[in-house]
Amino acid sequence: MVVERNVGARRKRVEDPRLLRGEGAYVDDLREDGCLHAAFVRSPHPHARIVTIDTAAALAVPGVVGVFTAADIESRMPPAMRAVPEVLGDVALPLAADTVRFVGEPLAVVVAETRYAAEDGVALVDVEYEPLPGVGHPEDALKPDAPQLHADVPGNVSSRVHRLWGDVEGAFARAAHRVTARAEHHRIAGVPMEPRGLLVRPTDDGGLMVWASNQAPHGFKRALSVSLKLDPDRIRVVAPDVGGGFGVKGGMYRDDLVVATLARKLGRPLKWVATRIEDMLTTQHAREEIDEAEAALDADGRILALRVRTIGNLGAYLHGGNSGAFLRVGVFGTGAYRIEAFETEATAVFTNTNPVGAYRGAGRPEAAAIVERVMEAAARQLGVDRAELRRRNFIQPDQFPYKTPSGTPFDSGNYPRLLDHALAMSDYAAIARERDERRQRGEIVGLGLTTFIEQTGAGSESGSVRVEPDGTLTAVVGSSTQGQGHKTMFAQIIADRFGVPFEQVTIRQGDTALIPTATGTFGSRSTVTGGGALVKASDETIEQALDLAAAGLEVARTDVEWREGAARVIGAADRSLDLAQLATLAAERGPDAALEASVIFESPLNGPTTSGAYVALVSIDPDTGRLTIERFVVVDDCGVVVNPLLVEGQRHGALAQGLGEALFERMVYDAEGQALSASLLDYALPNAPSIASWTLGQTVTPSPLNPLGVKGIGEAGPIGVPPTLVSAVLDALAPLGVTELHPPLHAEKLWQAIHLARAAAR
User: Fold this and answer.
1) Calpha distance 176→153 (Å, rounded)
2) Burial 637-649, CB ≥16 within 10 A → b, else e
């Protein structure tokens, strides 16, 4: 029997039919007998002292079981993750006790028999506030007279970290050219289709059964265990169907801990699902970073050294790993280029805004934007073609494995080939001529170019493979899905490893009872680490099968091989044992014996390095400021591709999110921290008519860090799209003398830039 090869096949997702029929089971679909419902009282003020909380009227609402404040919640969030020892500040209390520090901060929770009664109770909780001065923007928070958020954080500065690699001063002293650039990243929200939520049921042994809309069930379990001082063996966490994550559902939030604490206290199941506005206000935001760079170049335009100064907005508290968010410029800030000396200074600031955290890209978009602005500024200042300047500075294929000045390892890549492919696909020379001809006719037209890198698939992941009595294969993997198509992709990998039909493999995930330890899904890591674990588990299972077959067939171990889904005697095609027969042999060894293997795969170094080269042609209507993306060519290198159809889906989704960030999306706070775009009436997302028509291409440099040769691809769009469109827009506006403009590149901003430039020229 010849089985069709799966790795590399464009197989449709097996997950989709059930979801398309409306048979999904998200947290809000789940039902438990006797379940209570929670709703939170949240601050309308960015900064205020809590004077009193009167709960009497809320307690009188029919169906309300209780109203709880900070004094009723004895549990605490896990200790802050500090990227460097000098980080000041701390995580928030589960419910604010005496001061609220951002709009939407929870200070009380109403528990009732129904969600409706809980919401009615929230409306009747009477809170007296004493408003305090607030600060909504990171640069304002650094001013000497800025309101102070935390008594133990002078000047609102959580950390200021200076790092130096190589002889930066010497490079600037001998430089033939100096170039400066600035990149501003506005704050954005994750906006997953399903807001955060969880259902918690106390168990008879004093533990908890938890269903959570979360990307890392094992991490969620560990956090609950620490916060509740509860043996982890008494907690089970299941991620049911999860409607999107993008990094914002990677950890445990204050709301989650309050719900879990009260479920134990009340001894009844308790559910909470965020409203869309709650999700917009309280699910971690991302970006909001200002980067200023200075580069030293030699006479030929090669970058000798780079300095980057960063100011980043943490929000009101430390949250998850956000204390290290603004240090990532030091990790990724040299991009795809050979830069031997590098200096960074990153200042992390507290403001009266919702805390930030990981979101699709998590530090790579910011790093890519600043180094690409440097390349653009250098090309303009030196009068060198932008593509040629990048070629002169690229890390060369024969220099891999490569280490950046900060010690960040890159496993493999071919950046000149990547760029050349993007230029060829876009017919770069021809569209450059077209741009110039149209400019002569008075049109505002620009050509954008970006090359970038991202590191993916870092850390460890668990996986197991078991041969069932009927010869089917069941695999459990620690990477849990939020819509990426894992059950299809992982089954393809295992089917190929065993040489069996795809339909013979079942994938299970998202349940801490299935596997003792796992990491989860974020950072474009699932195919790399989860796939690596399943390859390793498959190979170990096959080795066991060959040992069993040798004994069962009474031949030497060296005389059997694995081929076409069975153990076969070499040279004797009629002597073989299939998976069902081998499972029977394994079961004969004892009541608990099985043909299976469980492993942990560790992705070495920082994980594989993905890369991309994007080209865009845009035009701008001077009367309306409307930006039209006329051509957008996207070339990515994510190593070996397991399922091209799934990779295309990941790329399209990521590109759409990158376009949203570049053109539309922005979470706005005023100068004191009042939220101005907390609903989808005010927060603009890309829709079908606004999505560009992408042309997708790829190159392949396999990663040597995992057995599949794969690299992550899920975050490329938000890294590559914004700087490409900034490049194109600034190129379009260059004849008007505009040299600096930052996303979001909405019509009003472009119209103002055009007309201010024309007014200045008159």
Assistant:
1) 42
2) bbbbbbbebbbbb
The dihedral through the CA atoms of 734, 737, 739, 743 has a sign that is negative
Low-confidence ranges of the chain (pLDDT < 50): none
Q: Provide the token pair at 409.
A: 């390892």
Spatial separation of the C-alpha atoms in residues 638 and 607, rounded to whole Å: 12
- Cα torsion 669, 674, 675, 681: sign: negative
Tally Cβ neighbours within 10 Å of residue 580.
14
Q: Tell whether omega for the bond before 94 is within 30 degrees of 0, i.e. cis.
A: no
Per-position b or e across 565-576, b if 16+ CB within 10 A of its CB: bbbbbeeeeebb
Burial class of residue 162 (count of CB atoms within 10 Å of its CB; 0-12, 13-18, 19+): exposed
Tell me the DSSP string of 380-444: HHHT--HHHHHHHHBPPGGG-SEE-TT--EE----HHHHHHHHHHHHTHHHHHHHHHHHHHTT-E
pTM: 0.96
pLDDT computed for residue 547 by the predictor: 97
d(CA 46, CA 102): 4
Beta strands in 498-571 (DSSP E): 505-508, 560-563, 566-569
Predicted local distance difference test score (pLDDT) of residue 592:
82
DSSP SS3 for 254: helix
| Residues 698/422, Cβ–Cβ less than 8 Å | no
Report how far residue 101's alpha carbon sits from residue 317's, in angstroms, rounded to the nearest whole number. 9
Q: How far apart are CA 43 and CA 108, in angstroms?
A: 10
Domains assigned to the chain: 16-22+459-603 (3.30.365.10), 33-132+193-244+249-282 (3.90.1170.50), 286-457+606-761 (3.30.365.10)
Q: What residues are paired with 40 via a beta bridge?
A: 109
Environment class of 559 (CB within 10 Å of its CB; exposed 0-12, middle 13-18, buried 19+): middle
Q: Where are the beta strands (DSSP E) in 570-689?
A: 572-578, 595-603, 609-620, 627-637
What is the reported pLDDT for 1?
Answer: 55
